[in-house]
Amino acid sequence: MPTLHIGTYGKDGGAGLVPLTLAIDGTLACGDAYAEAENASFAASGNGLVYLVDEREEGAVNVLCREGESWRHVARVPSGGEEPCYVSLSPNGRRLAVANYASGSAVLYGLDEAGLPVSPPALFRNDGSGPNAERQEGPHAHCVRFSNDGTALYMVDLGADQVLRLPLTEEGFGEVSVAWTAPAGSGPRHLLFHPDRPLALLLSELAASLTLLSEGPLGFETRQTLSTAPEDFTGENLGGHLVLNADASRVYVSNRGHDSLAVFALADERLELLQHIASGGRHPRHFVLLEDERKLVVAHEKDGCVAGFDVAPDGTLLGPTGSIRVPGACSVVA
């Protein structure tokens, strides 16, 4: 089984990047933390490297290289904004994008042949707000994703209820346009593209909803929207994380408040709910799907619980099969 790592928030007692071993029977065990990777709330892997955000007021991206069971710190660059929460690699591995939540900005770095960021980066900052005065007082970039063909970057703005399209040029960004306007107050959080069809999936945090979008020349159109929590649940719930499996037949979502994982089938360009299962902790913020091992591992932000699940042949989840507490847990790095 592969060794995973748990990103942790320092403000919640996190010690850095914590190695996690997952046994076939579901048993979880932790090793000594790598302290130089703080506040690693999101990561992207490629070029033989791991790029991790350092989510703090003066945001940064740490670049690490695995060396056996440890890490070597290769580079650290500014994120170009405050509280970076998402990082993404272009399909060809030559560009790195970062979403800065607090400053509502997207930053684009070129990467050299070794995969290291080259300064200066391109920067785009959005304007706008939403009806939720507490969460949408201004722009809040929560996700950046490259199009499958690598010609554009999409920025998901929770604060402005927008998905923006940023065309890519040699110098950085072209003319920015609104690709999709979310329902007012829904707070879009994460976006994923279908690998083979002109479809995308969008998870909204404040509305706790999953939307299937079709991609056209002028942007996205809504095909279907479903609640991520059970229809009879009346408590507060926030969408957490979104994963699409390799053959694009199953969609996994975490619910923070209902504290569950939801599994949806995606077929014939329609979504169908298959399962809700308790996530094993409080506020499941992030998780990874290990398809070869048929496992899923989820990190809970409010109690530091990291829980493992088995993935059944039909894609539904069984468990939790094991759990362990990691102070400050906020992400799982595969």
From TrEMBL:
<dbReference type="GO" id="GO:0017057">
    <property type="term" value="F:6-phosphogluconolactonase activity"/>
</dbReference>
<keyword id="KW-0313">Glucose metabolism</keyword>
<dbReference type="GO" id="GO:0006006">
    <property type="term" value="P:glucose metabolic process"/>
</dbReference>
<dbReference type="InterPro" id="IPR011048">
    <property type="entry name" value="Haem_d1_sf"/>
</dbReference>
<dbReference type="Pfam" id="PF10282">
    <property type="entry name" value="Lactonase"/>
</dbReference>
<keyword id="KW-0119">Carbohydrate metabolism</keyword>
<dbReference type="GO" id="GO:0005829">
    <property type="term" value="C:cytosol"/>
</dbReference>
<dbReference type="InterPro" id="IPR050282">
    <property type="entry name" value="Cycloisomerase_2"/>
</dbReference>
<protein>
    <submittedName>
        <fullName>Beta-propeller fold lactonase family protein</fullName>
    </submittedName>
</protein>
<dbReference type="InterPro" id="IPR019405">
    <property type="entry name" value="Lactonase_7-beta_prop"/>
</dbReference>
<dbReference type="InterPro" id="IPR015943">
    <property type="entry name" value="WD40/YVTN_repeat-like_dom_sf"/>
</dbReference>
<comment type="similarity">
    <text>Belongs to the cycloisomerase 2 family.</text>
</comment>
